[in-house]
Amino acid sequence: MNSSAEDGLTPVDPELVLNFGMGVVWDGDKHEENQRKHGYRFESVADWLDRTVLPLNAEPPPTVWIEQPQRDDCEKRFRWLSVDWEGHVVDFVFIIRDGDLRIISYRRANDRELPLFWGHFDEAEVNDWLRRAYPN
Q: What is 10-15+22-68+75-126's CATH superfamily?
């Protein structure tokens, strides 16, 4: 894993934020909007989290944390760049509310975000993780 203090990004172990037994929830309207705009169903995201992030015995996916500024009138948002089950780099935004992970957005990373992820991980490292996480 490559790391650079200058880019303001931090490779993160998702277990530092998430807890075993945490539920995954979302707003139905937000889900429909996300599916229409980005093609991802939040059910698929919940499955990805259940398989790769939330189990105690799982090896977390390659993930870069992007610090989100805290606004006074909003809950703390978390933003990660990671890889989905097909190896696409994704931008994942969520909050923690009432002990649950609440999905806000999940989409493929754009051209500005891709170098932020690939500056911390190389393709072989990601492919090795994918083979271990999804052996079939």
A: Ribonuclease toxin, BrnT, of type II toxin-antitoxin system (3.10.450.530)
